[in-house]
Design a protein that fits this description.
The chain is α+β, with helices and mostly antiparallel strands and 239 residues long. It is built from five helices and twelve strands. 40% of the residues are buried.
Length: 239
């Protein structure tokens, strides 16, 4: 594997605390799965692009996508753009940029890769995932390029994710309970919900919050779908 080309010095001032924290983060503070267990070895390496941009009126935001319901792994979940490493990918940065361009139509030439987080293991799919933090220097309009892969691409303001009113704990049918967010008519949970929770904390964006209880995942999704009526649907947002 080639050495990734990273440019942490290109981070804007508001993103610098997160970049610095990422270089010293303890993986045990980010996930309950610190490493693959015997009998559940990783089946594939993957990378996701944690792409931060900013708008004149909305402040910092991050790109998320809603994965299609028919996918084999993590169907119907909200995720960062990304996917499995291909033979031609030299490093996780190349994987993350290639997959994100294929899924959302973004232009990698306008993106500055800043740093990488440690590999995180996802037991349900058996993936070892490297989150690549990046700054969107020259944003372009994004969209769901292939409906078979994802049904929506959105730029979500960090302030929305940090808003205590949008945060809660969710319970999966397996019994697992984890952090979740309801934003833009979507429910961010699972691996992505846990990663967003960590990013808010490391970036200094987290606000004090408390949840009155744990919501069942299906109930949370129904509430999110109901909220789309007021949003006029969910679609890719122009840069």
């Amino acid at each position: 594997m080639t050495v990734p080309e990273l440019h942490p010095n290109r981070a804007p001032r508001w993103l610098t605390p997160l970049v610095r924290a990422a270089t010293a983060v303890d993986i045990r503070a980010m996930t309950r799965y610190t490493q693959p267990q015997p009998g559940n070895e990783p089946r594939r390496h993957a990378a996701v692009l944690v792409l931060f941009g900013e708008t004149a009126d909305g402040g910092p935001d991050v790109v998320l996508q809603h994965r299609a319901d028919g996918l084999r792994n993590h169907a119907g979940q909200v995720a960062f753009p990304g996917g499995g490493r291909e033979a031609g990918d030299g490093d996780p940065v190349q994987t993350a940029l290639r997959e994100a361009a294929e899924e959302t139509g973004l232009d990698p030439a306008g993106i500055d890769p800043l740093t990488m987080l440690p590999e995180l293991f996802i037991p349900p799919s058996g993936y070892l995932v490297t989150p690549v933090l990046a700054y969107w220097r020259e944003p372009v309009a994004v969209r769901a390029v292939d409906p078979g892969e994802c049904t929506a691409v959105v730029r979500v303001p960090v302030s929305w994710l940090a808003d205590p009113a949008n945060r809660f704990w969710v319970r999966h049918t397996s019994g697992h309970v984890g952090p979740a967010f309801q934003v833009a008519g979507l429910v961010v949970w699972g691996f992505t919900g846990g990663l967003v929770d960590s990013l808010l904390r490391m970036g200094g964006w987290e606000r004090p919050w408390s949840s009155p209880g744990v919501r069942d995942l299906e109930w949370a999704w129904q509430a999110a779908r109901d909220s789309r009526i007021g949003l006029g649907g969910v679609s890719g947002a122009d840069a």
